[in-house]
Write a structure and sequence with these properties.
The complex is a heterodimer. Chain A is an all-alpha fold. Chain A contains ten helices and two strands. In chain B, the strands form two sheets. Chain B has a six-stranded mixed β-sheet with strand order 6-7-8-3-9-10, sandwiched between helices. Chain B has a four-stranded antiparallel β-sheet with strand order 2-1-4-5, with helices on one face. Chain B is globular and about 55 Å long. The chains are: A mainly alpha, B alpha/beta.
């Protein structure tokens, strides 16, 4: 009981709003990744010339694409979805039309993935222009950024459907997203970390995206296992966003 | 012809019965009102009819279709004016209508034509490009009504359409509702204003604690119970009113 055309009408609603507001939101969202690049890439590279033979700024640049695109989907499907659902009552308005709850949730997930795609693509352009990418193969990662965006949308909708209030997202970011970001291998390789932290990386979607991005930007096509991990996890988490939203909205 | 048929309709929330086994039939072309105090179950009945949630028990058919199985088909033919103004605050007046039309699968060109006609109808043509946050309460209400009409519904659900409006804005909304009535649309209304109910409805159902305690034309009810429609309403739901006032006074003491 799901209709793609109706899901896309929800996607389109979010896109329409985004087109109006992007000028104010977009700039802010790119400041952060570029600050990371400047602070670590330039600041640290004085002391840390290279990692595994790669100049430090080139080491971190592809990883920043992975984390920024993941956060773009997460912000959209936590705060964005929650505001539409709870404060603006946009979902109530939509559910009074032929769009049903499954269409609505799919529309939100696709929109979250689109946000990842937009941010990922633009940051790829920026680091490419800055000469931090060695291979055209970086272009192959664009569909994978959408996939990782879809995964983060799933996780974030699960959070949005279960939090008691909007302030609870602080826990989500502090206890979940920030550790994923810091221990994803963006800033340092995970190989030499204590066993448990290294092993936990297997469960970290950002880690898998960082590996994909870094390999592709060096022209290495050795990331098939990471793609399989992403696809499997997307499929494992596909049902809960729909179930939990239904439980939250329709009593 | 029957537009809505309910038999033994029940809605429970965590074992609380918001709608407690009610029966009613709404005919094509009539304006049918649900009256009753807050918490009587009016909004729950509205939400069951426009398939926001499924009934717990009983039968509910809209346009002859079972709400449990044909939600999208039914919703395609209904227009809903909800209690709260859930307009899109980031969009302009006309964008609100165009985005909404897309949910019904209305093509862009047709949507634009309908949106312009509707803005004309509700007197907001010169505000088409205004952000909805800049509209007055009455204008927002009229826009919500226009939005409810974008799919040319056969049945229009009006959940407290004029709550919080000044007398002039209220009259304007009434006029618009009346025009829809004259076009042969079926209307379902909830309101706390007896004047509004009397002005617009062909028949009313008075609800209390999830049950329908009386049903008929306003005249029939006034003849049966005596006094004005407000007297009838207070007589039928008054027991609770006195109890709650009593409790409030006790608390204050």
């Amino acid at each position: 009981m799901i209709n793609l055309k109706r899901a896309l009408s929800v996607w389109h609603r979010n896109f329409t709003v985004y087109k109006k507001l992007y000028k104010s939101s977009m700039v802010l969202n790119f400041v952060e990744p570029i600050l990371y690049l400047l602070a670590f890439g330039i600041g640290l590279s004085y002391y840390l010339r290279e990692i595994n033979g790669i100049p430090y700024i080139k080491f971190i640049a592809p990883g920043i694409v992975a984390s920024s695109s993941a956060f773009a989907a997460a912000y959209e499907c936590t705060y964005g979805t929650y505001v539409r659902m709870h404060y603006q009552k946009t979902f109530d308005a939509i559910l009074a039309t032929p769009v049903n709850l499954n269409d609505l949730v799919l529309g939100e997930l696709l929109w979250g993935a689109t946000k990842s795609l937009i941010y990922g693509t633009i940051i790829i352009s920026v680091i490419s222009v800055a000469g931090l990418v060695d291979s055209w193969m970086i272009l192959l990662t664009i569909p994978l950024i959408s996939l990782s965006g879809f995964l983060f949308s799933e996780i974030s909708i699960i959070a949005a459907a279960t939090v008691p209030g909007i302030d609870s997202f602080n826990y989500f970011y502090t206890l979940f997203m920030t550790p994923l970001f810091l221990f994803s291998g963006i800033f340092f390789p995970l190989e030499n970390l204590p066993g448990i932290i290294k092993d936990l990386a297997f469960f970290n979607p950002i880690y898998h995206m960082v590996e994909i991005m870094r390999s592709a930007s060096q022209g290495k096509a050795d990331f098939i296992n990471h793609i399989l991990w992403l696809i499997t996890t997307v499929l494992l988490l596909i049902i809960p966003p729909f179930r939990l939203m239904k439980r939250r909205l329709i009593k | 012809m029957e537009i809505v048929v309910a038999k033994g309709l029940v809605k429970e929330y965590n074992s609380f019965r918001a709608v407690n086994s009610i029966d009613f039939i709404i005919h094509r072309g009539e304006c049918f009102s649900f009256l009753g105090p807050n918490g009587a179950g009016k909004t729950s009945v509205m939400r069951l009819i426009h398939c926001y949630m499924p009934p717990t028990e009983g039968l509910l058919h809209v346009f002859g279709l079972d709400v449990r199985r044909y939600a999208s088909e039914i919703k395609a033919r209904i227009g809903v004016m909800p209690q709260e103004n859930n307009l899109d605050p980031d969009l302009s007046v006309i964008e609100n209508l165009l985005v909404y039309a897309r949910y019904f699968g209305i093509k862009k060109k047709e949507a634009l034509k309908r949106a312009k006609d509707l803005l004309e109808f509700v007197g907001l043509s010169d505000r088409a490009e205004t952000n909805v946050e800049k509209l007055s309460g009455g204008m927002k209400r009229r826009l919500v009504l226009a939005r409810a009409l974008i799919n040319r519904p056969e049945l229009i659900i009006l959940d407290e359409p004029t709550t919080g409006l000044d007398p002039l804005s209220r009259r304007q909304v009434w006029e618009m509702i009346k025009r829809e009535q004259q076009r042969g649309k079926t209307l379902i209304l909830t309101t706390h204003y007896m004047e509004e109910a009397q002005h617009l409805s062909d028949r009313v159902a008075i609800m209390d604690s999830g049950r329908i305690v009386a049903i008929g034309t306003p005249q029939e009810l006034m003849d049966k119970y005596g006094g004005s429609l407000e007297d009838v309403y207070l007589k039928l739901t008054g027991k609770r009113l006195i109890e709650t006032t009593g409790e409030a006074i006790k608390e204050a003491e």
